[in-house]
Amino acid sequence: MGSIRSPPSENGCNGETSEVRRNIQDDWQRRDDILLLTTAIKRLVDFLNQFESSCRFRLSTLNEKLTALERHVDYLEAREVRLWKNPRERERYDNMADVFSIITTLQALEKAYIKDLVEPAEYTSNCQILLAKYSAAFRQLEGEFPKVEDFVHKYKLDCPAAILRINEGRPITVRDDRGNMGKSIAETVSLFINLMDKLKLNIRANDMLQTDVRDLLDVINRMNLIPSNYTGRDKIPKWLNILTNMNAAEEITDDQARQFQMDLEICYNEFNRLLSAG
What we know:
Layout: H1 10-78, H2 87-114, H3 120-138, H4 148-154, H5 160-168, H6 181-200, H7 206-222, H8 232-244, H9 254-277
């Protein structure tokens, strides 16, 4: 007689049912994830397509504007624009152009001299030529511009050094014989004392000394009181040359400082003797 199978237990059925449910839930979860990912990819593709279309349109518009601008530039280059209606007006504009170019050139020359890019002799020669040309050119505009400042203001020039040079009427290297001798003497004495005090205080840095040395040499060169054989005309340029060839943070040595101090005292004492003799 064959064996009779016993029916599956209730616990076994429940276990299989739970596993099927879990599988179904996992499957739906994966489907949801795939759906979300697919939707995100579609949105990204749509955005990129819209962005490409927008860029194409904007580039096309920009290209049209550039083409129109190029045509306008070509038209302006081919067209002769005249500022004047008659020879008199043309002469007026020519004179203003001359004054404009002289002032800007003079400003550049002053800055070049300040930066030691031009030798004093060359600076003096070119400055005198420019000042002479300015006087002749500006004379033609005096009816319209009483002062050079009026011309500079109208045409928005930034040239303070050139204006100063024009108002003084001489290069900075030319001696001052216009009643400023007392001021120049006081400035010279002040610079001598200032330099000697700095050396006594062990100030050795180039950027703390060079400006005073340069100013001292400039004021000496402007004074008619000082003869050509004055000791300072040799010693001061020598120290200016030494400092000019150094970096800003570099310092002179103790031996150089000692020699510099002695040279300054010699120059200062001789300067006082010249004042007494004068």
